UniProtKB/TrEMBL annotation:
Lineage: superkingdom: Eukaryota
GO MF annotation list: proton transmembrane transporter activity
Location(s), subcellular: Mitochondrion membrane
Transcription listed as a keyword: no
Protein name: Uncharacterized protein
Keywords annotated in UniProt: ATP synthesis, CF(0), Hydrogen ion transport, Ion transport, Membrane, Mitochondrion, Transport
Ion transport in keyword set: yes
Pfam families xref list: ATP-synt_G
Amino acid sequence: MASIASKLRQLQSKACQATQFASKHGEVYYKQMIEQNKEHIQEPATVETCNRLAKQLFYTRLASVPGRREAFRKEVDQVKQAWKNRKDVKVEELGVAALFGLECFAWYCAGEIVGRGFTFTGYKV
C-alpha cells in the first residue's frame, strides 16, 4: 500500500509541475500558434460559422468517399496482380514486404501496450 501512496504522490507532483509549466508558458504558446495560423481563422467566430464549417467538412469528406473507394479498388487490384505474378517476385521485394508486415505488427503491439496503460501483463501495479 505504501508503494501506491508513493506513486500517487509522484503523480501529484508531476501534475503540479505540468500545471505550473502550462500556466507560465501556455499563453505565449497560444498567442504564437494563433498568429502563425491566422489565415485559417474564420471571422466572425460565431456558433453559426462553426456549424457551417463543420457541415462543410462533413459533406466534403463524404463527397470524397467515391474517390477513396476507387483508389482502394486499384490498390486491391495491384495486390491481386502481384499475387498472380508471385513467381516473378524478386527477393528484394519480398524483403520489403516482410519488413512492412513486421512494422505493422510492431505498431500493433505498441498500441496494445499503450492501451493497457504501458504494462506488459495487463495488471497495473
